Amino acid sequence: MVERETIEKKTGKRSHDIAYGITSRPQEEADPKRVLEVNRGHWSIENSCHYILDWTYDEDRCRMRTGHGPENITRLRHFAIGVIKSKGFYSVAQKMRELTRNVRLVFDYLRMTKNACVASKV
Q1: Tens of pLDDT, residues 33-60
Q2: Which residues span the domain enclosing 13?
Q3: Do the domain assignments include residue 119?
Q4: Enclosing H/E stretch for 68
Q5: Which end of the chain is more exposed for a tag (fewer CB within 10 A), N or C?
Q6: Is residue 117 one of the residues assigned to a domain?
Q7: Could you give the 3-state DSSP secondary structure of residue 5?
Q8: Cα(first)–Cα(last) distance of the chain, in Å?
Q9: Confidence band of 120 (pLDDT split at 50, 70, 90)
């Protein structure tokens, strides 16, 4: 059983929720602390990756349905998110908007041009 209390930021409205779950783990592996870690781990993946795909790429409305297209485009999107995150940017969406407005920045960002800004060697 996981008990949650949430507060809506805009209205201040409080809500209380209880969620029940079933696990196939033996009792010694399913203590409350471990079950909570697994539950939170699921949501950290949802928030860090799927949320970005859903909101930045509007992936849920993608019309690509046949062949290897859906898998390939998802891999490209994951790659793009990984590259942006590896550079330490907080907002993937903000960096993508910046790169979309100026295609040259994409090549500089990936250091694909002769005169791209390269970190100096120390």
Answers
A1: 888 888 787 777 666 667 788 888 888 7
A2: 2-109
A3: no
A4: none
A5: C
A6: no
A7: strand
A8: 55
A9: very low
